[in-house]
Design a protein that fits this description.
By secondary structure, this protein is of the alpha+beta class. The protein is 29% helix and 29% strand. Strands 1-2-3-4-5-7-6 form a 7-stranded mixed β-sheet, sandwiched between helices. It is globular and about 40 Å long. Pfam families: Acetyltransf_3. Residues 1-22 are annotated as: Disordered. Residues 1-21 have a biased composition (Polar residues).
Length: 188
Amino acid sequence: MEMDSTTTIKPETLSTVSSSPPEKIHLRPMTLSDVDDFMVWATDSNVTRFCTWEPYTSREAAIAYLNDALLPHPWLRAICLDNDRPIGSISVTPVDEIRGEIGYVLGSKYWGKGIATEAVRLVAGEIFKEKPEMQRLEALVDVDNVGSQKVLEKVGFVKEGVMRKFMYLKGNVRDMVMFSFLPSDSLH
């Protein structure tokens, strides 16, 4: 899932929202001082396997990406635990006037702990309040990214089908699974 476009959610809304177990998390805007934490997951080829970008190999390149793409993004948040250090990020990108696409990435050390699920749940629970014109939150997931598919299903996203030969990713044409969440859907 891509994290390169924009949708606006008021920072004060989600920056104060926290979750309950399994892990207490909160979302906050990323800052340039997060570069070292960003490098932890952005250099991991297991983490970036299904991302549109390659693993970062230098701190300078990561700083440039933060400055040029992430910091100007109107709605991209760091996923943080109690210590406020980012362990991943999540974004909502507009597709058109009524649709947004959710994208997220999480350090592999935190996989399987319910953190991505809780971050997606927080965003899905707030986005329609902040953007009442939005009628649909979408997620496109590589057919081989079973973990991400499970995250979306646990939150209550509906699997709509497979988009055959839908995306060119890292030298290959890939099938993608389309998921959606509507304002009338229930969070799980």
